[in-house]
Description:
By secondary structure, this protein is mainly beta. Helices cover 14% and strands 50% of the residues. It contains two helices and ten strands, in the order αβββββαβββββ. A hairpin with a 2-residue loop joins β7 and β8 (122-135).
Amino acid sequence: MKKIFLILLLIASAYIGRAQLYTCNEGTVSFFSEAPLENIAATTDKVSSFLNTATNEVIFVIHIRGFTFEKDLMKEHFNEKYMESDKYPTSTFKGKINEQVDYTKDGTYNVTATGMLNLHGVEREINAAGTVTVDKEKINVKSDFRIPLKGFNITVPKLVFENIAEVISIKVNTNYIPYKKK
């Protein structure tokens, strides 16, 4: 995990000014699949992220095996049959917040972000609505959006198609603090 974090930091610092760079000190990503036979929900706090307040650029790395489920069998199927986590251990998002946010002024701002989501080895542009909340030197970003499984080459066997939704709801909640070089 440290290796991925360092790679992310190098990528971010290559095109992001350090003075306006924020790092995610805590965050969660969760998903929910509503299906006729069984709902499936999972959450992870294995999230690395950077936000550049000068350019509104944002980068996320989510560790797929970090998701926790209600049932161990769900986690096993998720990692082995659907996400192929050994082959695709992370998901990334590189994008930009579209609206101007005054990061020097406390408040909550409704925003959208556009960028490239890489999931299961497939990269697609997505748009996500959310909020940015500024509170002194802390920034919180929340977003709810949906993604189609077929769009990311995640196939659901016909035998269990009633167990998994074709479109999955994703929730992101991240807290940022100013990045300080160690």
